[in-house]
Amino acid sequence: MSLQFSETSEQRIEETLKRYPTKQAALLPVFWIAQEQFGWISQETIELIARRLDLSPAHIYGVATFYTMLLKKPAGKYHLQVCRTLPCALMGCDSLIGYLKERLGIEEGETTDDKKFTLTTVECLASCGTGPAMMVNEKYYENLTCERAEEILKELK
Ligand code: FES
């Protein structure tokens, strides 16, 4: 049986579609609903969204690959997204990224063996004046140092 939206997701999609002039315009919120249900955006999820919104899978795929916050493979329990854009670079994000890679034993885009952490680098997180910035799932952290990053990792169970 092909992938299906849950009843809850389907209700949310219905509500979302009412707020947009076309199904295509509602694509991003529908992505979020799908990612919340399935954890990531697989090829099957792309096909499901395409069927639901009467759009081509190629269009859905193109949008999915543009946005780094849409996960193209399963992530760990905590998704660390570190900004690598210039203002954060000037404030030392390279050291932070290097520290996290060494500390977790993974490269960018990888997940630790225990499936606890996924590390990615992303474009501006809109905290440019308080960089380096990082998101852990939905939570923002700013003015980061390697020491603060270590504290954050220890706080995450
Ligand atoms: S440049 Fe890093 S948050 Fe904007």
Can you walk me through this structure?
The protein has 157 residues and is α+β, with helices and mostly antiparallel strands. A four-stranded mixed sheet has the order 2-1-3-4, with helices on one face. The mean pLDDT is 95. The structure holds FE2/S2 (inorganic) cluster (FES). FE2/S2 (inorganic) cluster binds next to helix 5.
Nutshell version of this structure?
With 157 residues, this protein is an alpha+beta fold.
Structural class: alpha+beta
Regions with pLDDT < 50 over 5+ consecutive residues? none
Tell me about the largest β-sheet. 4 strands, mixed
Oligomer: single chain
Number of DSSP E strands: 4
Reading side by side through the largest sheet, how are the strands ordered? 2-1-3-4
List the bound ligands: FE2/S2 (inorganic) cluster
Mean pLDDT: 95
> Distance between termini?
35 Å
**Cα-based radius of gyration, to the nearest Å:** 17 Å
Keywords for this entry:
4 strands, 4-stranded mixed beta sheet, binds FE2/S2 (inorganic) cluster, alpha+beta, 157 residues, 46% helix, 11% strand
SSE diagram, text form:
Blueprint: H1 7-18, H2 27-38, H3 43-53, H4 57-66, E1 78-83, H5 86-90, H6 93-104, E2 117-122, E3 134-136, E4 139-141, H7 146-155
Parallel strand pairs: 1-2
Antiparallel strand pairs: 1-3, 3-4
Helix pairs in contact: 1-2, 3-4
Residues 83, 85, 87-88, 124-128, 131, 133 line the site of FE2/S2 (inorganic) cluster.
